[in-house]
Amino acid sequence: MKRGLLIIDRGSKEDEVKTELSTICSKVMERGNYAFADYCFLEVVPPFIKDGIQKCLKADIDSLTIVPYFLYPGKKVKMAVNEAIKFQAGTSVKMTFTKPMSMHPAMTEIVESKIQLALKKGGIDLPDSKIDVLIIGHGSKDPNARISIQYVADSLRARYKSVDYCFLEIEEPTIPQGIEKCDKNKPEALAIVFYFLHEGAHVKRDIYGDLSPALEKSQIKKYVITEHIGTDEKMIDFIITRAREVEDAD
To answer: 28 and 124: one domain?
Structure first.
């Protein structure tokens, strides 16, 4: 059986996002032994879901695994799945849908690897028990978003001095509130995690609009900022893991 894979991302106008997704698809296709792998976007810019599905169906495949590439289960994931499933009736190619990229030990491992890499690059040689961690997520009206980021924070707490989280927009705690709370802990070193899949506008610009002045006002002298989590090689394995969960159930 020839199986294809389609990643559905939210969408971004930043060129880096398409570059990252192209790289991810190439590695997933090779490592997961897929006959075809590509990506599309739910919104913002093409290729949209219709474009992605049609391209997949033109390939020589018997089945298609569709991956909602989102950090949080919720409204966006439902929109992506509902849009894609409309095309099942018009083809003999069987479509299966994975869970999003959340609520799984693999995500904790990815965040952990980002923290350790940032600490190493920053020349911080302290025991993990003396490192404070602040995870910055996007923020959402959907309660599942908070549950997902809290899952990662809870999973890391046994290793680090403290682990908290805050949000760029929509919900609290805000980034200034998150930094203020960390400041009260008087950290020897703070690892700031960018809990975003891509190097989009939020990672390149928006976060710093709140983060930089908040750090300047604080007494925190030693800190590192991680890469966004979508760049990790472990993410390739996680995508394949999510895919195998539904493929093995066929």
So the answer is: no
CATH number for position 190: 3.40.50.1400
Dist CA 104 CA 210 (whole Å): 29
The CA-based angle 91-93-94, given to 5 degrees, is 115
DSSP 172-195: SSBHHHHHHHHHHT--SEEEEEE-
Residues of the domain holding 32: 3-100+233-247
Domain match, 60 and 137 both: no
Contact 187, 129 (CB under 8 A): no
Does residue 185 share a domain with residue 138? yes
Of 12-16, 116-120, 153-157, 159-163, the range with the lowest mean pLDDT is 12-16
Which pLDDT tens digit goes with each residue over 207-223?
Answer: 999 999 999 999 999 99
Is residue 104 within 8 Å of 238, Cβ to Cβ? yes
Residue-wise pLDDT tens digits, 37-51: 999 999 999 999 999
Half-sphere exposure of 83 (CA within 13 A, CB side): 22
